[in-house]
UniProtKB/TrEMBL annotation:
Name under which the protein is recorded: tRNA dimethylallyltransferase
Quaternary organization: Monomer.
PANTHER family in alphabetical order: TRNA DIMETHYLALLYLTRANSFERASE
UniProt binding sites for ATP: 9-16
Catalysed reactions, as listed in the record: adenosine(37) in tRNA + dimethylallyl diphosphate = N(6)-dimethylallyladenosine(37) in tRNA + diphosphate
Molecular-function GO terms, alphabetical: ATP binding; tRNA dimethylallyltransferase activity
UniProt source species: Candidatus Yanofskybacteria bacterium RIFCSPLOWO2_02_FULL_47_9b
Enzyme class: transferase
Binding locations of substrate: 11-16
GO biological process, one term: tRNA modification
């Protein structure tokens, strides 16, 4: 068996349930590779496994950062490597699971991550721009990185611009790293598109019933600005706008469902570039 097992796929593809079953069967422990599940208090909106599910199988890299602070791919890799070493030392099998492709690739393929400190003055200038405008800026600075970054994620775009201004160029295409031989077995979950969209719609309504609106309201009451909440995208963006009465509930639901479906498609485009993933549609 490979040293690592990596479970990937779009949001609402059933990764969590599948991975818990697998971990219990092979005596594994789970390392979450989700850029939002690292934050404390962001539970329902991110689809974080419940406390009950965490008791079934040990989970790592959940609730390791405050949502007030930024969390980088470099921080993820550092903590994930520490967790992997600990799991292996105890005779268990580490299972990486998540939908944040860059985190997973950075960890498994040792993609170099430049240590560039945040430029707050630059960030303040860039936060006024749309994702399309940010992507245009990045293309001029580093065309290669612009091809690899999520074009709809303003946080990722701002960070890419910030790093590119210091390092000048990423100087690699991420697909080149997939040619390496790594001690990892990749499994991808990819339901048919219509089924995935039904899953997304059903899950969205479940999360609303579970208290997702209250969760966002509580985060704001705890000190997170509406702007910060919106920066997390998807559920937190549209619910923050709804709670500010900038959109109606119907608009929130329509826009949120649309954006989650678009996000799932972007996730699949990222993962489909990796020829090492063995895909399961059922």
């Amino acid at each position: 068996m490979k040293r690592l097992i990596v479970i990937v796929g779009p949001t609402a593809s059933g990764k969590s349930v599948f991975t818990i079953k697998l971990a219990r069967k092979i005596k594994g422990e789970i390392i979450s590779a989700d850029s939002r599940q690292v934050y404390c208090g962001m539970d329902i909106g991110t689809g974080k496994v419940t406390k009950r599910e965490q008791k079934l199988v040990p989970h790592h890299l959940l609730d390791v950062a405050s949502p007030r602070n930024n969390f980088s791919a470099g921080q993820f890799v550092k903590l994930a490597r520490r967790a992997i070493a600990d799991i292996i030392r105890r005779g268990k099998i580490p299972i990486i699971v998540g939908g944040t492709g860059f985190y997973i690739d950075s960890l498994v393929y040792n993609i170099p991550l430049p240590e560039v400190k945040p430029d707050w003055k630059l960030r303040k200038q860039l936060e006024q721009k749309t994702p399309a405008q940010l992507l245009t800026i990045l293309k001029k600075l580093d065309p290669v990185w612009a091809q690899n970054v999520d074009p709809k994620n303003p946080r990722r775009l701002v960070r890419a611009i910030e790093v590119s201004k210091v390092t000048k160029s990423q100087k690699f295409n991420i697909t080149d790293f997939y040619k390496q031989k790594v001690d990892a077995q990749f499994i991808g979950l990819a339901p048919k598109q219509k089924k995935l969209e039904r899953n997304i719609a059903k899950r969205l309504m479940q999360r609303l019933k579970q208290g997702m609106v209250r969760e966002v309201s509580k985060l704001h009451a705890g000190g997170l600005s509406w702007k910060r909440l919106e920066s997390f995208g998807l559920e937190y963006k549209w619910l923050a706008l709804f709670l500010q009465k900038k959109i109606t509930r119907a608009e929130m639901l329509t826009n949120l469902k649309r954006d989650i479906i678009r996000y799932a498609k972007r996730q699949m485009r990222w993962f489909k570039r990796n020829p090492n993933i063995r895909w399961r549609t059922n």
